[in-house]
Amino acid sequence: MTFIYLSPVALSFLLLAAHFMHADNAVLVVAALALLALMALRRPWVKPVLQIALALGALEWVRTAVLLVQERLALGQPFVRLAVILGAVALLTLLASLVFLARPVRAYFGEGLTHGFDGRGEPR
Asked: How many domains does the chain have?
């Protein structure tokens, strides 16, 4: 069940890796794939790291959209479809960070969900 929740996160990191590969930026390709692999690590600190990475990824999509739209405008080419597609990808990437609010995802990353107890049932 958690896999279904985390699939938008995985898709977002795969799209970012493909984007960076297209830009010939091997370091960021490896970083995006490392963040994808980090999802397998079930530690509480992973959740904010992935959320921040997704927010930065959304900003990268917006930056790319602005640059490409400016380029198309300068060349007198159509740009609306490009802007809509990249805007949707940026929105998907940003919204993917919201899956970390779901109870199964919080439990997966070891966030204690009971009041007054940690994730193992021990008092805090």
From this structure: 1
Q: Is 122 left (phi over 0), alpha (psi -120 to 50) or beta?
A: beta
- 71: in domain: yes
User: Could you tell me the residue range of the domain that residue 75 belongs to?
Assistant: 2-108
State pLDDT tens for residues 11-55: 999 999 999 999 999 999 999 999 999 999 999 999 999 999 999
Q: Is 89 within a domain?
A: yes
Q: How many CB atoms lie within 10 A of CB 93?
A: 26
Is 92 domain-assigned?
A: yes
DSSP annotation string for 45-112: THHHHHHHHHHHHHHHHHHHHHHHHHHHHHHT---HHHHHHHHHHHHHHHHHGGGGGSHHHHHHTT--
pTM over 0.70: yes
